[in-house]
Amino acid sequence: MAPPLSSWPWASLGQYKYVLFGPLVWKVVQEWREQGSLPLGSWWLHLLVLFAVRGLTYQFWFTYGNMLFFTRRRRVVADGVDFGQIDAEWDWDNFLLLQTLIGATVVNSPLLPGLQQLCLWDPRGWAVALLLHVGFSEPAFYLAHRALHRAPLFARYHAAHHSSGVTQPLTAGFGTPLESLLLTLAMGAPLAGAFLVGHGSLGLVYGHAFVFDYLRAMGYSNVEIVSPRVFDAFPPLRYILYTPSYLSLHHRERRGNFCLFMPALDAAFGTLDGRAWALQRAAYDGAAGGGALGAPGFVFLAHVVDIMSSMHVPFALRSLSSTPFANHFILLPFWPVAFAFMLLMWCCSKTFVVSFYYLRGHLHQTWSVPRYGFQYFLPAAKKGINYQIELAILRADRMGVKVLSLAALNKNEALNGGGTLFVNKHPDLRVRVVHGNTLTAAVILNEVPSNVREVFLTGATSKLGRAIALYLCRKKIRVLMFTMSSERFLKIQREAPPESQQYLVQVTKYQAAQNCKTWIVGKWLSPREQRWAPAGTHFHQFVVPPIIGFRRDCTYGKLAAMRLPKDVRGLSSCEYTMERGVVHACHAGGVVHFLEGWDHHEVGAIDVDRIDVVWKAALKHGLAPV
């Protein structure tokens, strides 16, 4: 049997836990109807607004802390958050829900009569709250926190909180009901005291809640923002205000730094870990000993697909970025904001770091070119996009990156010849530029059953289509190549060995594949075109975006992808529509290139002879087909 106050009573409700706000909403609606306008003086309304504002405070800190293009040099701990921590902290806002319900109980009781006379501002209340925070909240939290670190309380109530390897602002809310009640006491006592002596105000409630949450979120942010020079100029500040480094030491080592916000109590009771100040300086300056992200060994250079998917980034909503991308209704209100950011990036942005993970001791990063999918098809944007890609390659070269893999449209043949443009322009590059399409072709080809003797191929004269056709014809598999260009078809056919050329057949109508149950799709198919496939057809795909599965009597494969090795660390977001731990094959191709230490560029046309070589290397290093 679980110890009391160790689990949340509404855990079984899942995402429907917010129905507990139903009575508060109903109270607001009743008062609205009675008054004929929004009841701005209603505590029920303010409790709901406070819940939203407080949640946004933690969300904004989370967003800032994970904007690696701003904060990667001032991180306290360099490790990344993994999916296990994200899932454990999924209901991080339970403490906000609890405190809102407690607030509703207090408002509905005669305990604090001062609540009935709503005052907007009273500076005397601030003075009372400050005195109570220093004189009661800080000592009470310190003593309770130390008690939670002793057996058996730690294992029952506090161990789960410390199981999070890397602190994040959302980690601040992850805990048991007992921990949340103690935190509620520390936060609520100053407010209660101010109202009991008749000096409470609405401004105090909002202000105190904001400052409390702001400092909590800052401490858990894993990013230093206060310059050590401020502490040097005013040394007593070290004992008044904690830092993310101070809290991080406590979270990892669990033997000191127990204070709420003021290290003075740790100093007074002999539990202060003085290394926090040296760590804070190192983290802020990005020096050795801090958690700054160093130079990556591998970079995957992506781009934004569209406005909706631009919100599927690790520094936006973690609950969305940690699951495969899908169009959620919750994103629609943010569409204008995302559109504004698109215009801003188009005007004045450069390539930026999006995410990272570690694989066998090496840092791997994903960078993004600040361009959206539709812009790659604007003739006027071609030069600017290539310029952004070129700058990213040169930056990677200066940083000592070993391999840079081009994603999706960044390696478009019409744009830069699959990366050939950059390699030819800069022949002395130390970084290896890779399009990763060799492994993409290998993944698609290894999905084709061994007993298949005929396939229908669209996008047949593209880079991938050419490689797939040449590989299959060598296996004596008949390839119906859908293309209107006889010139392109004949050029590819002449590349095949003489004895294999007969297996390449040009077709110009979809009707030609009405008896073929294996379709390899490299070009968008409409419902009308899909209807020519016989029942039982499987559609393999390398078209972006993937085709929509209109046929219920057929099956549809996903984009070519591979699962990263099991020893990957710090992976916290899904790559577009991929499952957790799965990346696009071109990303995986770059990883294999890096792990193998190959010294050649992989640009331009795919070397068909290397398809099996790359596939075997991927399996050797622990990458697995999905």
TrEMBL record:
Domain Very-long-chain aldehyde decarbonylase CER1-like C-terminal: 455-625
UniProt GO MF annotations: aldehyde oxygenase (deformylating) activity; iron ion binding; oxidoreductase activity
Predominant subcellular localization, coarse grouping: endoplasmic reticulum
Catalyzed reaction equations: a long-chain fatty aldehyde + 2 NADPH + O2 + H(+) = a long-chain alkane + formate + 2 NADP(+) + H2O
A GO cellular-component term linked to this record: endoplasmic reticulum membrane
Membrane topology summary: Multi-pass membrane protein
Family listed: Belongs to the sterol desaturase family.
Record protein name field: aldehyde oxygenase (deformylating)
